[in-house]
Design a protein that fits this description.
Rossmann fold; seven-stranded mixed beta sheet; 2 domains; alpha/beta; single chain
């Protein structure tokens, strides 16, 4: 009986160690700290998630170690595919906790980030989102931070742009059950109406929808000046092509998810004139870190069979990793609670600008980049700030 009691005590202590995060030793005897990568690499958002992962992997290549109490620790990334699914997100989050991750990066997609939030909170392992823009990701969760701007800001930016471009009537298309799509659509609608605009049609579609002609026919009848359709990379080219096939000439706009070359490839000439908001433009690096990143990351993209066009989410993934390293060093610890406390006061000159967090764990950002698709490429139009 005594042996059983001792065994149970050891097991309990081991569980506490894993759930709080901690250091390990590599096969070569190096001290290690584990950073978990919580991202979709398959499913509806797999394309965007993979781009975000590439930014994190590259950051790990550039900065493979971190200093803790005067000792060098190798940073090991452990990746878990949340498969763009809220149920799978919980499983993926739990697997990263069990792996002994001291901090988690991700995820692309607000819905999966929200679904996993309580796992990180309950186990006291901080998470740093890269591009998850819905306010609910960090709301009421002291262990979730993020390096991107939020949907209320992004929705307002795009409403302002539409209004200033002369739009008076707007249609909004959103995906049922998708926190990012529905949230951003609502913020755009609210801001556009506040400016004096009229939302003449609101349409929703189910996940995995491929035929949008009924929705678009309803929209065409209202003759909008602009269509705002925040959605996934997979659905974007379908909406764009089918709208143009129906003879809809309204300007089509969306949020950050549409900055992906596959949309141009799949929508073809129909994508011309599409406008979107995003987090980063490699033509105008804001910091020394950005210039360094741009120079090294383009060849890295080619090595990984990607176009040498830097996705904004890759830059955010890189920045999330930098923030994690800074917090680990400031905490002088591999333990989740200590790293979380250090994150509150972290300040990082990242690729997407200076990153500091407000009381909600959100990056204090007020600048968005507006881009348009012209001649099969994303072209910078303007930066927009909403004060």
């Amino acid at each position: 009986m005594k042996r059983i009691a001792v065994f149970l005590l050891i097991a309990l202590l081991a569980c506490q160690f894993v759930f709080a995060g901690g250091s390990t030793e590599s096969k070569s005897g190096e001290k290690e700290i584990i950073i978990g990568v919580f991202e979709p690499q398959t499913g509806e958002n797999g394309g965007g998630g993979y781009q975000e992962v590439l930014g994190m992997r590259y950051a790990n290549k550039v900065y493979p170690t971190v200093q803790i109490n005067g000792e060098t620790y190798k940073v090991r990334l452990i990746e878990a595919d949340n498969k763009s699914d809220k149920t799978e997100a919980v499983t993926a989050a739990q697997s990263l906790i069990s792996s002994g991750a001291s901090v988690i990066l991700g995820s692309y997609g607000s819905g999966v980030s929200i679904a996993a939030g309580d796992i990180f909170l309950d186990n006291e392992v901080p998470a740093i989102g890269a591009s998850c823009t819905n306010p609910q990701v960090t709301f009421g969760n002291d262990y979730y931070f993020r390096v991107c701007f939020l949907d209320p800001f992004q929705g307002t930016v795009m409403a302002n742009f539409a209004w200033q471009d002369g739009a008076k009537k707007a249609a909004v298309i959103t995906q049922l059950g998708d926190d990012y799509s529905s949230g951003l659509g609502n913020f755009f609608k609210r801001a556009f109406v506040d400016l004096g605009g009229n939302v003449v049609s609101e349409q929703q579609f189910q996940t995995n929808t491929t035929d949008f002609k009924s929705i678009l026919t309803n929209i065409k009848a209202t003759n909008p000046d602009v269509i705002f359709a925040p959605s996934s990379i997979a659905t974007a080219p379908l909406i764009i092509k089918q709208a143009r096939e129906l003879g809809i000439t309204a300007k089509i706009m969306a949020g950050d998810t549409w900055e992906n070359s596959s949309i141009i490839e799949n929508a073809g000439s129909s994508a011309e004139g599409v406008v979107l908001s995003t987090f980063f433009d490699d033509a105008d690096p804001a910091t020394d870190e950005a210039a360094k990143f741009i120079k090294g990351f383009k060849p890295y993209l080619v090595e990984n069979n990607q176009p040498d066009i830097i996705p904004a989410v890759s830059a955010l993934g890189y920045d999330a990793y930098l923030v994690a390293l800074k917090a680990i060093e400031a905490a002088n610890s591999t333990k989740g609670p200590a790293i979380r406390n250090a994150l509150v006061d972290v300040a990082v000159e990242g690729v997407t600008g200076k990153i500091v967090f407000n009381q909600n764990g959100d990056a204090d950002k007020d600048l968005a980049f507006i881009k348009i698709i012209q001649n099969g490429q994303f072209k910078f139009l303007k930066t927009v700030s909403v004060l």
